[in-house]
UniProtKB/TrEMBL annotation:
Entries under PROSITE patterns matching the protein: UPF0021
Domain of life: Eukaryota
Full protein name: Cytoplasmic tRNA 2-thiolation protein 1
Enzyme category, top tier: transferase
Keywords of the record: Cytoplasm, RNA-binding, Transferase, tRNA processing, tRNA-binding
Broad class of where this protein is predominantly found: cytoplasm
Gene name for this UniProt entry: LOC101848966
Family stated for the protein in its record: Belongs to the TtcA family. CTU1/NCS6/ATPBD3 subfamily.
Length: 371
């Protein structure tokens, strides 16, 4: 005999929620899913009436469900928000170009304005070109740094007050595990925050902080939402993938493991004597950074000088090798990046901090100057 919905008690249950174990019908699941996100929004005071909110839209399940639910809740609860879809084109042939077609369909389906910014326009590089230089190892580091800046820059051009992203509970739990394994105390303190960047250019919010990935997939499936499901062709060896596999194994044994990890991350404290990086602005592009020169500018300099690994890690053999070559030529100058992000950036005499002879590339985004 079919089991009745545990909420309405009238219709037959068609699913069991991974998060709570409740057996629900479709309509009750939709309501519970949406109202939990609404509760998160209210509890964290994410928005104020009249704000312009840029939705980070990649075409994937998370951002597609985010755009749908933000539109639904904005109308149902009268948030008074102006919603805009903002996409980043990393320049990955056979992946991002296809997913952007999905975003364009979403724009018509949800009747929301869409803006697309690209790595090539902002930085003079595409991910395809970067991978040719760096290879398949560490390429996600470049993409993550550039994408974070690109979203902020795009939102600033649109005059947005806030950015919302589709980071879900699984993503945040993975980030906590990754930061624990790397011993990255600075990021560990802020990775569980539902709103980040309040001391920078734009606050960035995560309405899906307590929403399970499985439930996002179920919502998209039963609602028949149009989303792009292919994984990035450059991410098979990404460090996050190993953290994801670990958490999935934990979840099989203990379904509450995801939320437990998030709560653990929220409760962690750092000793008072531990020195934390202080926020400042990059001297080159004026983007928020914990160093004199931000990570994106360090990476761009390495790419433009044909030494892409200069921007990877705190101390790298490629950087030391370049230092030795410049020292041998008597041309070494030091731009102290400090902090934990980029270490030192070495610049040769006769060059500006952002140029390398004929290989100079100009940032045509909102960055003031040459990256």
């Amino acid at each position: 005999m079919p089991r009745k919905c545990g909420s309405c008690g009238v219709k037959n249950a068609i699913l069991k929620r991974p998060k709570t174990g409740d057996a629900l019908c479709k309509e009750c699941f939709y309501w519970a899913f949406e109202e939990e996100i609404h509760h998160t929004v209210l509890q964290a005071k994410l928005f104020s009436p009249g704000e312009t909110v840029a939705i980070g839209a990649s075409g994937g399940k998370d951002s597609t469900v985010l755009a749908h639910t933000m539109k639904v809740l904005n109308e149902r609860h009268n948030y008074g928000l102006k919603l805009i879809l903002l996409s980043v084109d990393e320049g990955i042939t056979g992946y991002r170009d296809d997913s952007l077609e999905t975003v364009k369909r979403n724009q018509q389906q949800y009747d929301l304005p869409l803006t697309i910014v690209s790595y090539e326009e902002l930085y003079g590089w595409t991910m395809d070109a970067i991978v040719k230089q760096i290879g398949l190892k560490n390429n996600c580091t470049f993409c993550g740094v550039f994408r974070r800046q690109a979203l902020d820059r795009g939102a600033m051009m649109l005059g947005a007050d806030k950015i919302v992203t589709g980071h879900n509970a699984d993503d945040i739990a993975e980030t906590v595990i990754m930061n624990v394994l790397r011993g990255d105390i600075a990021r560990l303190r802020r990775c569980t925050a539902i709103t980040t960047g309040t001391d920078g250019y734009l606050p960035r919010c995560k309405p899906f902080k307590y929403t399970y990935e499985k439930e996002i997939v179920m919502y998209a499936y039963f609602k028949k939402l149009d989303y792009f499901s292919t994984e990035c062709i450059y991410s098979p060896n990404a460090y996050r993938g190993f953290a994801r596999a670990y958490i999935k194994d934990l979840e099989k044994i203990r379904p509450s493991a995801i939320i437990d990890i998030i709560h653990s991350g929220e409760s962690m404290q750092v000793k008072k004597e531990v020195r934390m990086p202080t926020q400042t602005t990059c001297t080159r592009c004026h983007y928020i950074s914990s160093n004199e020169v931000c990570k994106a500018c360090v990476m761009l300099e390495g790419l433009n000088k044909g030494r892409p690994r200069l921007g990877i890690g705190k101390i790298h053999k490629e950087r030391r090798k370049w230092d030795e070559e410049l020292a041998a030529q008597g041309k070494l100058q030091t731009v102290d990046g400090g902090g934990t992000d980029s270490g030192n950036v070495q610049v040769a005499d006769g060059e500006t901090e952002s140029s390398a002879g004929n290989e100079q590339r100009t940032c045509s985004g909102v960055c003031s100057g040459v990256c």
